[in-house]
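cron nightly-structures :: item 1 of 1
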Amino acid sequence: MNKTIITVVGKDAMGIIAKVCTYLAENHVNILDISQTIVQDLFNMMMIVDMSGMEKPFEQAAAELSEMGLALGVQVKCQREEIFDKMHRV
């Protein structure tokens, strides 16, 4: 399994979840876990996904998701699970 952490943060707007999830589905990325909250008008979503079915390189998908985020007015970041774990180890 090729687990990746995707975070989406920014001002809430209609269609953020739909666009991100549509991109993932079209690229054969399976969502394993998802958490989303809105505090006042600030949107925060964290996803754990399996990218092993994706045909694109990780870097290309991360760049495309980042560009999509810019168009939506949010910040989208992708990190491989092992890097995320090492960065957040106590």
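cron nightly-structures :: done
The chain has a mean pLDDT of 92.
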